[in-house]
TrEMBL record:
The chain crosses the membrane at residues 54-73, 85-104, 116-143. The keyword Ubl conjugation does not apply. This is UPF0756 membrane protein E2K98_11355. The keyword ATP-binding does not apply. InterPro entries: UPF0756_TM. The lineage of its organism: Bacteria, Bacillati, Bacillota, Bacilli, Bacillales. It is a multi-pass membrane protein. Belongs to the UPF0756 family. It comes from Bacillus salipaludis. Keywords: Cell membrane, Membrane, Transmembrane, Transmembrane helix.
Length: 153
């Protein structure tokens, strides 16, 4: 008998295939492999609790790789601050990091919100070719909006 989780993953795999989204298809393939190998029970718990931090670490490594390779140096850094776009990027990076901070606790504490955010991310990745960092940033935005709503109610 097919479980709801398996049916849901297969549906998402189909969406990923139709949208030609390799990241989504690889993620689902890994989850299916873990599920059918019998490692799912432990693996899913670990992935759920540590996966976001691992993902952020991998993204951070990718962002810092040009510094490590020597493509970006201090000269580039000081030159960038002469550009108004660099200042916009700096402020945007700080804002996103602060938003994501609230999102981490929201994702950890509210399963209903997590489900909606994950579904929104999957739809964006599948349909609009978005990037799957959405749940963390989305949770941060949701957390901030919720705090504003709480403040005014």
């Amino acid at each position: 008998m097919m479980s709801h989780s398996l049916l849901f993953l297969l549906l998402l795999l189909g969406i990923g295939f139709i949208a030609k989204n390799n990241s989504l298809m690889i993620a689902i393939a890994v989850l299916l492999l873990l599920k059918f190998s019998g490692l799912g029970a432990k693996s899913f718990t670990i992935l759920q609790s540590k996966g976001i931090n691992w993902g952020v670490t991998i993204i951070t490594i990718a962002v810092l790789a040009p510094i490590a390779s020597g493509e970006i140096g201090f000269k580039d850094l000081t030159g960038a601050f002469k550009s108004s776009f660099a200042w916009i990027a700096l402020i945007s990076g700080m804002a996103v990091a602060l938003l994501a901070k609230g999102g981490v606790s929201l994702l950890a504490n509210d399963p209903q919100i997590t489900t909606a955010l994950v579904l929104g991310t999957i739809l964006s990745v599948s349909i609009f070719k978005g990037v799957a960092v959405g749940p963390l940033i989305g949770a941060g935005i949701a957390y901030t909006v919720m705090k504003v709503v709480d403040f005014f109610t």
